Amino acid sequence: MARVTVEDCIDKVENRFELVLLASHRARQISQGASITVPRDNDKNPVVALREIAEETLSPGDLKEDLIHSLQKHVEVDEPDVPESAAIVDQTAVAADVDEPEENIAFDRMSEEELLAGIEGLVPPEKSDDF
């Protein structure tokens, strides 16, 4: 059972902090039941993970992608763009399904500059001595 050190892995993953992240992620995978690619030799999961990285049985790039994917809370899905005319048809279909009578509703349009000018013109509330 040979000892694995950071120096054994640093030529595979140049950043020591990234190496720690990848090894810890792989150790968690092993503890959750993932199959190991090197003999265990009575080593604990972090050591096995470092040995896998040092012996290049796992690609650091693949580990990094898997780590990033595991940390994502929201995955963006590219949806096809809907032409503007189709969006108008969908809105009128939704409006037709509503049982309430339709009223003429007008929305004010404001440019970004007008909005910023309005916000800058606001006066902060006066502070009271009640606190």
What's the multimeric state? Answer: single chain
Question: Span between N and C termini?
Answer: 67 Å
Biggest beta sheet attributes: none
**N-to-C SSE series?**
HHHHHH
Report the principal-axis shape. Answer: elongated
Helical stretch count? 6
Report the C-alpha radius of gyration, rounded: 29 Å
Annotation, overall tally of beta strands: 0
**Uncertain stretches:** none
Structural class: mainly alpha
- Strand % is under 5%
Give me the secondary-structure topology.
Layout: H1 6-9, H2 16-31, H3 45-54, H4 60-71, H5 84-97, H6 112-120
Helix pairs in contact: 2-3, 2-4
How does this structure look, described?
α2 (16-31) packs across α3 (45-54). The protein has six helices and no strands. The termini are far apart. The chain is mainly alpha-helical.
Features:
131 residues; 6 helices; mainly alpha; 50% helix; 0% strand
In short:
50% of the residues lie in helices and 0% in strands.
